[in-house]
Request: fold
Amino acid sequence: MSELATLARPYASAVFKRAKETDSTEKWSKSLAFMSAVLSDKEISVLVENPKVSNERLSALMLDICQDQVDEEGANFLKLLVQNNRLTLISAIAKIFEEYKAESEGYVDVEVTTAYAFSKEEKQNFTSTLEKTLSKKVHMNVTVDKSLIGGVLVRAGDRVIDGSIRGQLQQLAKRL
Reply:
C-alpha cells in the first residue's frame, strides 16, 4: 500500500493544486470518487490489467463510461493515467486528494470504532472532545464492534488512539 501511495501522491498533489487554482475541489472530489468506483468494478479492473487491451481502447472505454461525470480536465487526467499505465492508482489518488482537501478545509476524517453505539448526546460530546484534541473540525464515521469489549478505537489519518478494553488487554499481555 505504501508503494501505491508513493506513486499516487504526485498525481494527487498535481490534481489538488489544479483544483485549488480553479476553485473546483468539490468537482474534482466527485470526479475522482466516480473514477475510483468505476475501477473498483471487477470487469473493468480485469480490462485495465489486461496487457492485450491497447491504451487507446482503454482511454475510449473510460471516457465513454465517465462522460457525464468528468469535464475536459478530468478527461485529460484519465488519458494521462492510461498513457502512463497508472490507471490502477486512481483509488489511492482519490484517497490522497481527499486528505489534501480535508487539510486545506481544516477538518479531519475520523474513523471511530466503539463497543456500543453512541447516543446522540454522547456522540456530540465525543466529537467536541476530539475536535479539542486534534485541533480541527472532525467528520466522524462511527462503527460498532463488540469485540472491543468496551471503550473506543479512534483513527485520524496516521494517528491511532486505542482506548478499548481489548487494546488494554493486549498491551498488558505484551508486558507480561
